Amino acid sequence: MQTVNKQKAEVNPASAADFLPEDKLRELQLDRLEKIVLRSYERTVLYKKRMNGKGIHPGDLKSLDDIRHLPFTVKNDLRDTYPFGLFASPMSEIVRLHASSGTTGKPIVVAYTQEDLDVWTDSMVRTFAACGLHSGDIIQNAYGYGLFTGGLGAHYGAEKLGATVIPISGGNTDRQLMIMQDFGTTAFCSTPSYFTFMIERAAEMKIDIRKLHLRTGIFGAEPWTEEMRNHIEKASGIKAYDIYGLSEITGPGVGSECEKQDGLHIFEDYFYPEIIDPVTEKALPDGTEGELVLTTLCKQAMPMIRYRTRDITMIMPGKCKCGRNIRRIRKINRRSDDMLIIRGVNIFPSQIESAILAVEGILPHYQIVLTKEKGLDNIEVQVEITEKVFSDKVGAMEELQSKLVQALENVTSIRIGVRLVAHQTIKRSEGKAKRVIDLRNKN
Amino acid sequence: MKIKQLSLFIENRTGALSEPCRILSEAGINIVTLCLADTQNFGIMRLIVKEWQKAEKLLSARDYAVKTTDVVAIEIDDRPGGLAKILMILEKSGLNVEYMYAFTSGKNGRAVLVFRFEKPDEAIKILSAKGINVLGEAHIFEK
How large is the ipTM? Predict the structure, then answer.
C-alpha cells in the first residue's frame, strides 16, 4: 500500500504544463496562437474568407487579447463544409477520422494528424492524473468505441498513463458488473447517467459497489448536476469526477476536475478558453457567466478558431488549491441550445434535475415531456417511484407529489405538473441520457 | 394478531390493474381481499394474500414498488349496525385510523374489517379489551 501512496503524492510528469508559471503559459499560448491562426488562414478556405471579410490578417495578432478580433466558428460551419472542408492537412498526413452521431442531419467529421493524437493522448493523461489515477489503476472504459471520440480518447490516455485498460465499450450492464468484480476495476469511465443505471442494476444483482475495488468515476459527455454527483458518491462510495470535452475541439480531455472537485481545469496550453455573451458576442471577464468559446492552439489537421461550444459556464477567478496554474471553468450543467422556453420562461433540464434530486429519496430517473395543449406549451416531469419513497397511504404519496411540484416551482418560478410513474418505466440510457421528450410538433 | 398487507404503486392506465393480479394468479396465489385507492394520477393497490413473502418477491422482481404494512383485521356480524358499533369504540378510544376497507367472507354471517392504524399494537389491545374479535392469520385465511 505504501508504494501506491507514494506514487499518488508525486505529480505525473505529463501534468507539468498544468503547473507552468502564468507568464510562461501566456507566452507559450501567444506563440502557439500566432502559428495556428496563420496555418488556418493559409490552409483553410473558410478561415481565410472570414478573416479577409473582417479585414484581419494573422500578422495583426500582437497579444492574446487580440483573439477577440478573430471571427467565430460554429457547428454549422462543420456541417456546411462536410466532410473534409475544414481540413488543414493533406489526407496523407491525417491518421484518424472521427464523426459525431449526427442525430439531426449530416454528422460532423473531425480529423487528426499523428501529432494531434499525441496532444489528445497527453491531455487525457493529464485528465486521469488530475483525477488521482496512475500506473497500477485498472480503468474500465465504458465510453463507446468507434466513431465517437469518447472510447478511443480515454483508451490511449489510460494506456499512456501506464494504467491497465479494459476496453469494454458501452452497454451490457451485467457483463460490466461481472468484469468490474472479477478484474478488480479501480476506475470507471462512462456518462454519469449510465453509471446511475449501473448502481441500480448492481443493487438488483445484490452487488454492493462499495465493497468492490472501484474508487474513482471519470464521468463526462453530458451535463450533470452537483446533486447527481452527491447521489452517485453516496450510493457507490466512489469519488465522481467531471471531465469535459467535445469532438470539434479534440474529444474528451479538453478539461477536467482535479482532486478538489472545484471547477474543471482547461488544458489551456492546448485549448484556449474565452467566455462571451451569447447574444452580443462580446468577451466577458472572468467570474461572469456566458458561453464558452475555445480555440485549439496545436491542432494541425483541423484547427478550430474561436469555436462556440454552446456550453454555459464561467472562468472561475482565483487559483485552485491543487496548485495548478491553468484556469478553471465552473462545472457545466447546461447548454444554450438545451434551453426550454415554456410559457415565456427559460428553463434548463439541469434545474429540473437539481430540484427533484433535492427531494429526499428520489432517484435520478426522470423525464421531461413537452406537449402542446390548445396551442399552449405544456411541460410535465415524470418521476419514477421507488420502494424507498412509496407509501401505502394516499396522503403521503400526494405530499411527495406536491413536494416535487413545490421544488420545481422554486427553481423555475412556474407551476410544472409532476406525474409519478412506476419503477423501471423510464428508459435507461447506455450513453448520453435523453431527458427531454418533445412531442410539441407531433400530430 | 397483525396481518401483513402488500401495497403496490399502480399507474393510472389501461391494464395497470390486471398485471399484478395475473402475476399472482400464475403463481397460484389467491387474493383474499383487495382495495384500490386512486387519485387522478396514480393508484395504490392494497392486497391481502396468505403467501405474502412469496407474492412480495414475485412483484418486486417484476419491478413493482411494494410495501409491506401491518394491518388489523377484525370480525363483526354481517348485519346493520355492525360497523357503526366498532367505529364508536374507535372514536371513544381516540385511535387514529389511516384507512380501512371491508369484505364479507365465505362463511355465513361474517364480515371482516381491515384497519390501517398508526399504532396497530395499541389498537389490538384496546379492541381485544372491548371483546372485539381480532383475527389472526390463521383465521383470516380460513375458508
Answer: 0.87
